Amino acid sequence: MSHYNSSMVRTAVPAIGFAITIAAAATLGHARTADPVPPDVLISRQLAESFGIAPGAIVRLSTDPSGANAHGFRVAGIYEPVPDPMRINTSKHEVRLHLPDLLDMTADPADPLSGRTVDAINITLARPDEARTFAREVTARVPGIFARAVQGLSGEAATFVVLERFHLAIAIVTIVASTVFLLALTVMLVDERRETVGILRLIGLTRGRILVQVFVEGLLIAAAGALFGLGLAMASEGLINSYFQWHYDTALVFVRVTPEVALRSVAVAVPLGALASVAASWALLRRNVLLLARR
Predict the structure, then answer these.
(1) Could you tell me if residue 138 is inside a domain?
(2) pLDDT, tens digit, for every residue of 2-23?
(3) pTM of the model
(4) Residue 281 domain boundaries
């Protein structure tokens, strides 16, 4: 299946069917058709819910605002549109119909070539890594044809590359700021335990022994905090997805805590927490033992 609108036809596989987006100018309604067996169409779930259409119903579609020259079709089924972040806030009222039926609706009788002309064709390669080479060969062999790989830093893909870099920048700033805050908080907590540290030094514990103890303690606390954060993220994942999927009426997944994300979070949070504890304790252990034990 592929996507069709009033200005472009795209195909990714040999033509089996096409989809037409119901624009504001198009009309749709229940009607009877003179054809004994009207052609089949598929309609999106959102369109079926908006107009109360059930499988087997007869609908009439027209590309004319007045509804003239409408064609009758039988609804063969209802489908869920492919989630697309670029179309999250647009209408999802769509109809999928076969190419000959689509040409009957859109072709200009006065122009013999209107039913044999397309603006763009999408091709899926068995080996996607050869997309750029294939595009160059097509451009060289077919005069007047412009071919390009849809993946990379062009078109809609560039938008997501920019968003990914923006998220990376926010993540770096957040980690640096949180590390500074964590270090300051740890220094205050360690300073409150200076008498305990002084007593440990007086009874013979070395700085290295105390640092190891602090490191283990910080490691355990950081691990507990990381696990709590992961649990909170996983618990809120379903709530966030459910709300935004309801709000935008889409099956798009907005939040997904993958094992890779979880491991990366733990790998960053636990070492930073442990190192912050050691750094704060090292500044305290450099003081004189008698000053530490003084009340």
Answers:
(1) no
(2) 333 333 333 322 223 333 333 3
(3) 0.56
(4) 156-293
